[in-house]
Amino acid sequence: MAKQNGLSNTPVETYDASKITVLEGLEAVRKRPGMYIGSTDVRGLHHLVFEVVDNAIDEALAGACDRIEVTIDKDNTVTVKDNGRGIPVDTHAQTGKSALEVVMTKLHAGAKFGQGGYKVASGLHGVGVSAVNALSEWLEVQIRRDGHVYQQKYARGVPKTEVKIVGKYKEGGTGATICFLADKQIFKQIDYKFDVLAQRFREMAFLTRGLTISFKDERDGRAMTFYFEGGITSFVRYLNKNRDVLHPPFAVAREANGSQIEAAIQYTDTYTESVYTFANNINTVDGGTHLTGFRSALTRTLNDYARKANLLKDNDPNLTGDDVREGLTAVVSVKLEEPQFESQTKGKLGNAEVKTQVESVVTESFGAFLEENTREAKAIIEKCITSARAREAARQARDLVIRKTAMESLSLPGKLADCSERDAERSELYIVEGDSAGGSAKQGRDRRFQAILPLRGKIMNVEKARLDKMLQNEEIRAMITAIGTGVGNAFNLENLRYGRVVIMTDADVDGSHIRTLLLTFFFRYMEGLIEHGHLYIAQPPLYLVKQGKTSEYIYDDGELDKLKKRTKSDRMEIQRYKGLGEMNPEQLWETTMNPEKRTILQVSLEDAAEADRTFEMLMGSEVAPRKRFIQTHAKSVRNLDV
Fold first, then answer.
1. Mean pLDDT for the chain?
2. Domain boundaries in the chain?
3. pLDDT above 50: residue 605
């Protein structure tokens, strides 16, 4: 008789060996794909490409490859070809199978796990091409080595042919070609984004000096080739393309106790820090020991030079880390044999020895640069001293606007219509453009969990202002106080008052401008909101279409065109909403604020370096890059309201 549990009369099923499931081969990847590639949305789809390209990058890091070609065909087939050594095809002693088949069908099988195949390896999660094989409808690999072309085909990770010779190759033509079609059973939508892939390939080329990455998309004919002889120095120049710089880039590349240390530094006249760190070509978005060592070296070296050059007087306090990082653009890249990461996503490097290695290399080489370039050194130090004075002014201003605790409501801005819910995870704040729309939103909202903060006009462009000036802006102060997290280095996500912060602006040019200003503010001073998925953009409808007694809200021009083709009715009445204020409270709730029917876009940060450069281009002081951008994209704008 089955045992009864203590809560109900429901029998407890027998738990024995028959309940234990063993997933053979790559079944585990297909059963739980998110564990291996992060997700089955567009990010996971791109991850497949990156895993295959990373194999070729490892060949480049080993000095065996200098060209990678990536092609997306019209049917979404992806082909990655390199001129490396080619995956070994001889018999693997442990399994009795071809080494190629082992690499393609076994998790954690490869030359990155201690047999001397690679001194330095990248890869995102260590599962490599076998996970790609498992999640592909089909995959074909060709290896060019030992005078022959070897081939094997697979379907959803299962070999369909033996490894066989299918031809010969010309002298010097070694390498690998992997072609795959992502599985529609796994991925809801197969739609590769050219710009996302291109950004990653550009980054890889920057970090691997002398490597050419060619990328072609047969779906629309777009193509780009990336090659940077200057390595990370070129990377820094690229990031500062739209900024006024104080000096030519400083760069160092040295080996320290078996680790390869590279750093490139350049100061600009901006007020933000743009520092990006990499370990074995992996973007360590959360920093780690290499970043700690770099920052320590930078602060110490600049203070030592400033004292020696008498730019800091005896009674002047030392420059702080914040002071020396204002306007700094830098890339730090380390390559080591046994990287230790603090999470599965490899966002933070943990090797303790790397801190000392980076600190030593940067201190010595950057110190020599300052000594040899006194004019540039003086410009950097003066920038840091000005930053120190502004930081003190900003501290005093910040104390006036940041609340002491997350739930303290006595100092909330008067224009804020707060909600009754006090659990941040269950509440949301709508930042609304204009008093008219704010009034409709206040009346149409659900007061239990939705708060409304109307803004008057356009906020300050924070890309052109220091923190102390920014904090004098009334609208920005209202947002900081309402959200509760603080800004910049004082940002603390634990004090967030609303689980969702939703930007809601008009669907016209002014609304787009205000939305861009707000996104710039959040990216520069509350980046944690974006990183942790708390920032959203509301999607109000563009049109209300009436046909007889029926009405339908339309959210973009493409949807309207489809509706016109589908109905072809002459009696169609189309009302275009130029502003949120044109909707009554019931319409605004029904279309834009009702959680059961609305569409809101979550703001994510696909590539911090590219986002940094884009915000500087759109919102910075240089007019020419912005003008080029507008001229390039002007033809794609429809229904322009002026």
1. 85
2. 27-226, 232-398, 417-540+585-608, 544-576
3. yes
